[in-house]
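Shape is hard to put into words, and the shape of a protein is harder than most. The fold becomes a row of whole numbers, each drawn from a learned catalogue of backbone shapes. The outcome of that step, for a single protein, is printed below.
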Amino acid sequence: MEEEQGGVKDYKVTIEYKHLRSNAPGGVYVVPIELRRWSGVIFVRRGLYAGGVFKFEVRLPPAYNDHDAWPELRFLSDVFSPYVSPEGAVDLKAAYPSWNPSKHFVVTALTFLKKLFYVKRGFEDYETPFNPEAKRLFETPEFLERVAACVRKSNDPKHLYDHHHHHHPMLSFSGKQKNLDGLRDVIYRLADPPEDDPYGLEPRKLLDRDTIPPDLPLADACLDYVAESKRADKQS
């Protein structure tokens, strides 16, 4: 019975990832390393962290899909925020004190992960911050300096192109190549949310024939993927 329940949970995880492929918040990209361990990156285009390229990891514990079994989010890049511990752990419980698997999913967690980069208010009601120093310094010049340092470090080639960091994450970057500049520009443009969606939280297709020049590397594969996603949406 226990093995059967585990199989059902594993199946739900695969369904979640399939849904996430076309419904992730804008500028957030995730690929699986293992069934319950995913590698991700977020491109921040506005606000205090603008220009940052922050790597993170998603881990789904064996009990995930039970009540109060939260996914675990951890940044591999330095992120100075009251919601992020010095070790990179994200305080998902700050937004979701209770986790209901019928209402909350990985995309829910990733939406919160994105929103924490756009927080503009104080943290008076946040009594147990994951980073007390960040809360204390919020809205001070030192906070801005610390955030700017994180953004700079996230773009440092030693960090950005480190393929051997944290057990060889699948989602990694190559050095600058001219033939990929167009694709890089597409990703950044689509990561920038429209005026009526300031947080970029509305799910939307990231790639189509209007946004991918046909001469880009892997363009055909990307377009095939989009076509497959659209067919799946119509069938669901």
Notes: The chain has seven helices and four strands. The chain has two domains: 2-204, 205-236. The two ends are 29 Å apart (CA to CA). The CA atoms of residues 153 and 159 lie 7 Å apart.
